[in-house]
Input
Amino acid sequence: MTTTDTPAAASRAAEDLNPLHIGRQQLDRAMKHVPSLKQGLVEFLKCPLRTITLCFPVEMDDGSVRTFTGYRVLHSRVRGPGKGGIRYHPDVTADEVRALAGWMTWKCALADIPFGGSKGGVVCNPKELSQAELRRITRRYIADLGDNIGPHTDIPAPDLYTNEQTMAWIYDTYDAMHPGENNRPVVTGKPVDLGGSLGRSEATGRGCLEATRHALARGAVKGLASLTGARVAVQGFGNAGSVAARLFREAGAVIVAVSDSQGGVFSERGLDVKAALEFKARHDTVVGLPGTKTVTNAELLSVSCDVLIPAAMENQIRGDNAGQVKARLVCEAANGPTTPAADDVLRRNGVTVIPDILANSGGVTVSYFEWVQNIENEQWTLEEVNDKLRVKMQRAVDAVLDKWVELNGLVGGGPAATGQLAENRHKVAVDLRTAALAVAVGRVAHVALERGIWP
Ligand code: NAD
Output
């Protein structure tokens, strides 16, 4: 049996799932709506500034030596130094890291923080590595990157399968290589006692909550004005997904399903998120949580719910399964979970998608707050961080919804126009992703021209 024997598999095979190609397709859709963008500038904005590929040896616990491949891509420095997480995953590729770096550029522009975009990754399987091996991989990767990262050039952060501990090793390695300087701003997402910001560990999930609440309050989703009683399904129960599940629950939503890499759990009446977190901590998976029905990750995407939060990997909602999504709103906590073919299906079906570069920008926004606190040698209160985050998220949502209304031909913007458009879904020719990218690309292009093409 070949991989294209079923209609779903054939359709998936027909779709180009290379994240870099997907990022470029998304940009092509948006750039049509950015006035007076010169062709040469378009090429510049699409193309990463540089891709660093490293091969480095690491001694394993059993005394053997393995060679690992790591990448660091700087996509843009137009609006400030590169900013972007580092992921550890066996499927990391140069194109994936390039795509993620590009999305960081647009995300930082949309959040209106003074960073460009970058991303890093090491091809490895953290589930099969000890803490000591992960520490040696991290130190060697950072040492070999040398001065290609720095507090004012390119600033890493956590991503898939990296965490506060990884960031502490990164800081320590860079600090050892640059003694006598304030090196704290070289990396964000650090433990709080090492200069991390209060609120950073839950910022991505909290940002999703703020974006969703504000979009609903502005009437962006027909028939769904608030989260009270809304049924929510979350794919991925790591940093982004588990925090989103907890905060959406606290905001009055009912969490009907959650999942991780081993599968998912569903409860018609709603799950106890705290119990799911405790179960996951003990068993390394949510599967088997008492009182729930086991579902696959594919089934989770099609459960009956109001809000679907993909919070795991790229390419989860594709042309072949987007038609099964029953949610009215998709809030993308993950980067790149929805393909362009799926975007078309969802738009036609009247499903609103809060795109990744908007929905999950809470993480990089609080990373920016951490960077500012590190430069000032200050520590803001949790309340201050969360208040500033709410303001940033609301402004970004407003900018995107206003552009969405404008691009769909409704002049004037504002809450009334948003609601009007949501009520008349057949008039929606341009989705929120395209509107968000149009805002972001416009901002980056404007600054590029303001600075002047060098020399
Ligand atoms: P994480 O490592 O903390 O958690 C990942 C979760 O996804 C785990 O529960 C894992 O079991 C699950 N998972 C992995 N593969 C899966 C699959 N095929 N199907 C279902 N679940 C799967 O990672 P994270 O930091 O939460 O990142 C998740 C996503 O959010 C990524 O796309 C990442 O780029 C994005 N993101 C994270 C942050 C952040 O601050 N951590 C910020 C912005 C965006």
